[in-house]
Predict the structure.
Amino acid sequence: MKLKDLSKEYLNQTVELVVLIGGVTLKRTKSDKVYADVVVQDSTKRMETKCWDYEQFEDVFTEISEDQPVKIKGLVGEYNDRVQLTIKDIRPMKEGSYDLGDFIRKSDWDLKMMEKSLKVFYDKVESPEIKELIKRLIFSEPYYSRFTTYPAAKMVHHNFYHGILQHTLEVLKYALTVATTKKLTQRQIDRLIAIGLLHDWAKIKEYHPLPKLDLTDEGIMLGHIFLGSYQVEKEIETIGGFSKEDRLVILNGILGHHGALEFGSPVLPKTVEAQILHQADKLSGDVESILQFTEDHSEEDESFTPKLWNMGTGYYKG
Ligand SMILES: [Fe+2]
Ligand SMILES: [Fe+2]
């Protein structure tokens, strides 16, 4: 059984699942008993469970690492109209008895197709200097294998294997539709593709590799907007003949891609390329988060999901 299969059909039954532990938060009941909120995940879903008998399993919880699957027995219950799982037993799986890839949520886009599309966007760029910048940061190791596997977020959108890659391709597709509709020049298109490919590039530094779905110290303290623009600036300095204006436009596009100072961008988008990129980025993130959230809440009886925090409203499930 996979986490996605858990439904009210199994209410009051004990089920067995093999999962990764994504996080354990210790809490205390009113009577001072320690219990834990345990985030579990497999390839289909990530969800929070309860473990009221934490102390009984403390050894297991403290010894397992985030990339070691465990077999759990859980009681299916209901809380706030949602299925809730209470862990009744937990045991580590034997080394070698599992394939880690089976426990990580992946993009449902075909990887070969995504790698091909990445190349197609790269081939559209005509400026040799901008091409060189992209080649160094995307198509060279150790970056390429990270860029094509890392998640793009912890919670809201594209928080799965190949997440940055899928999100980047969505952003570029949306952005280039606008660029061709509005007949942007080749130079503007070159810059737009560079901003698109590099805007979230530094998420390979901001996040740990999966299955650990968390920020690095560097990510917490510096963030992907600074880390990305800093790395791009460093590369540009060593690429001979890089135009001053391309440098400004590309860096402004990366620094401004969150679109507003209150969303973490230190400057506003100052070119049409940067504004298109920002809108395309927002569209990709918003649409993915609505689809994912609606799916996560599909088992509940109401017609609407609860409020999706980044959108400020709930969505009709149809
Ligand atoms: Fe971003
Ligand atoms: Fe993005």
